[in-house]
Structure formats: C-alpha cells, structure tokens
Amino acid sequence: MSLNPKLKDWKSKRIWIVGASSGIGEALARQFDALGAHCMLSARSKDKLHTLCAELTHAHALPLDVTDEQAVKGAFRNLLEQCGGIDLIVLLAGTYSEMSVKSFNLAAVKKQIDVNLNGTMHVLDAVLPTLIQQHYGHVSLVSSVAGYRGLPNSLAYGPSKAALINLAEALHLEMKRMNVGVSVVNPGFVDTPLTRTNTFPMPFLMTAGKAAQDMIKGYEKGQFELHFPKKFTCGLRLLRLLPYCLYFRLVKKITQSSTEHAQ
Ligand SMILES: NC(=O)c1ccc[n+]([C@@H]2O[C@H](COP(=O)([O-])OP(=O)(O)OC[C@H]3O[C@@H](n4cnc5c(N)ncnc54)[C@H](OP(=O)(O)O)[C@@H]3O)[C@@H](O)[C@H]2O)c1
Probe ligand 1: pick from 64, 160, 192, 206, max atoms within 8 Å of CB? Predict the structure, then answer.
C-alpha cells in the first residue's frame, strides 16, 4: 500500500539533496541527474559540490552547513528563486562516531545531535511553509536502522536517528492531508566515508549506488519507510517488536558473537 503520493517521471523534477558531497547523497545526485531531474546539491564541501555539478547535466551547488540556521534559510530562498518550487527534499547530512559508556564524550554527543537532528529541524523550518503552500512535494529524512532501538556503542548516533524516525512519523500524520509526502529512510550498512572507519564486521554491506537505487524505487512506490538491504533490515524490524527481556538478551548475544568474530 502506498502511503505517499508516488513520485514518478523524474524529468525536470526539482530535487534538493542536503548532504550530497559524498556517499549516498552523491550517488543519489548522479542517479537523479541521469533520470533528467534538476538537482540542487548542498553540503559544506564547496569544492566537492562544484566538481560533482561539473560532471552532471542539471545540477547546481548550494553549499551550506546545516547547523547554521540562517545559511539553510538563505540557501532555500536561493533555490526557490532559481526553481520556483520544490518536488523532493532529501535530508542526508549526517555525522557518526561510535560511543560507548566508557568513551562518553559530551562534545561529540552535541555535534551528532546538532548535525543529525537540529540540522534537520533547520531544513524543515526553511521548507515547511513552502510545502504547505504548494500542496505538493515530498520531504525524506534519512535516519538509520540504528534508530530502531537502543544498541551498544551508539549513545549519540542512535538517539539522534531515533528522533528522526519519530519526527518523520509525526510529520507524515499531519502532512498527508496537505498532499505532501513524508518518508524516512533506514539504511543498514552502506560503504561510504561515514562507515569506513568502523572496525567491526558490517553484515550485508552495500554500495552507495545500490542504496540510491533502492531509495528511488521507494519514492516511486510511495513508501513511507524505505529500508535496505532487506536481508538485514527485515530481521532488525522484527527485533523492534520484541519485549525488552527478549530484546536485551538477543542483542547481547548477537553483538558479543560479532565482536568475537572480529577479533
Ligand atoms: N553509510 C551507512 O552505512 C549509513 C547507514 C545508515 C544511515 N546512514 C545515513 O545516511 C546519511 C548519509 O551518510 P553517508 O553514509 O552517505 O555518509 P557520508 O558520505 O559521510 O555523507 C554525509 C554527507 O553529509 C554532509 N554533512 C555532514 N555534516 C554536514 C553539515 N554540518 N552540514 C551540511 N552537510 C553536512 C557531508 O558533506 P560535508 O562533509 O561536505 O559537509 C556528506 O555530504 C547520513 O545521515 C547517515 O547517518 C548511513
């Protein structure tokens, strides 16, 4: 069942990708461009964005830092002047560092909340009035399976991503009647600069290109939750349903055995 208006016929669709300078965002920009969409690409790395835009046919760079509320508003004003409206906003800007109880670091916690959650709020603050007025469009928040339930060594990233899942649900409930689509993307492990520092084994690791492909398919089907790779995420979605006594026991067992394999 499609919970959102289906996004099809990408030709000339106006798409804002926030977090487009590398990884999944970059792959998405390349694929949308090949489908004829007009992509506006944001991230902090100006040079990377300009290099990417030079390789694409219909892309423009809008460099920004999502933690800077005014910069986000300015970039969206600029986008509206150039495009006159917006069809899809994909919010991928994110940062990750592993954090355990013993390595708890408040500055790193604040940084992850600031980029992953507050950065998303800054973008919403800029785009919501336009989406409400347009009565069309789609906003897609990129969360993670790490946001499903509490996991070890994820004291900052997990909570920031759990908040995004809750936020997407809340947005969807209100925006459906405005004909505005809302989705949440929960990837498993994707090979990008974000995960390359991980020292533990990453099951079902997929390429950024495949992740982007799965996202586009999800938008075309009008899905609310886009999750991949299914072999990994379906199991985790089941874990989400377990009562605490079983969940804690199982996660302990799984994470212990994967740590032993890594050693
Ligand atoms: N890779 C995975 O396995 C995985 C799994 C689940 C969820 N995710 C999520 O997917 C999203 C994309 O991650 P990725 O794996 O593609 O990693 P990535 O290659 O590191 O991409 C992160 C993007 O966010 C941008 N960014 C970071 N901080 C920013 C800021 N303050 N302002 C604006 N842009 C900022 C980065 O560009 P600049 O550095 O140029 O600013 C980059 O374009 C993230 O939200 C991540 O949490 C990834």
Answer: 192
